[in-house]
Amino acid sequence: MNTAAPSLKIDFVSDIVCPWCAIGLSALEIALSRLEGEVAVQLHFQPFELHPDMGPEGAEVVPYLSKKYGMSAEQVAQNQQNIAVRGAAVGFVWAFAVGFVGG
């Protein structure tokens, strides 16, 4: 009988400036730690540029996200609150830059 742990390859596609990607990675790492010894995991990181049109100087959050995703200022604020709450739940603290998204 084969007692080797099953193998699982995970391609994690993310942008390093995306808070939801960081939160997702934290949640994945927590889940994988619960399976330690039960599943052999190969985690491969794949880059993805979420905002390819973003210049190195960044952009103001509300106008940029409003245009890109059709969000109101209130929706942007609610989304940032959701990020903070969900991040805290997985031990990740997101420090929002004052009014800018990264470039």
Give an account of the 3D structure.
- This protein has helices at residues 19-34, 61-69, 73-89; strands spanning 7-14, 40-47, 59-60, 100-101.
- The protein has three helices and four strands; from the N terminus they run βαββααβ.
- The model has no long low-confidence stretch (mean pLDDT 85).
- The chain has a two-stranded parallel sheet.
- With 103 residues, it is of the alpha+beta class.
- 41% of the residues lie in helices and 19% in strands.
- α1 (19-34) links the parallel β1 (7-14) and β2 (40-47).
Q: Strand count, sense and closure of the main sheet?
A: 2 strands, parallel
Q: Count the strands?
A: 4
Question: How much β-strand is present in the residues?
Answer: 15-25%
Order of helices and strands: EHEEHHE
Shape: elongated
List the total number of helices.
Answer: 3
Poorly predicted segments: none
Q: Which structural class best describes the helix and strand composition?
A: alpha+beta
What does the secondary structure layout of this molecule look like, with pairings?
Layout: E1 7-14, H1 19-34, E2 40-47, E3 59-60, H2 61-69, H3 73-89, E4 100-101
Parallel strand pairs: 1-2
Antiparallel strand pairs: 3-4
Output the keywords.
103 residues, single chain, 4 strands, 3 helices, alpha+beta, two-stranded parallel ribbon, elongated, two-stranded antiparallel ribbon
Summarize the structure.
This protein is α+β, with helices and mostly antiparallel strands and 103 residues long. The chain has three helices and four strands.
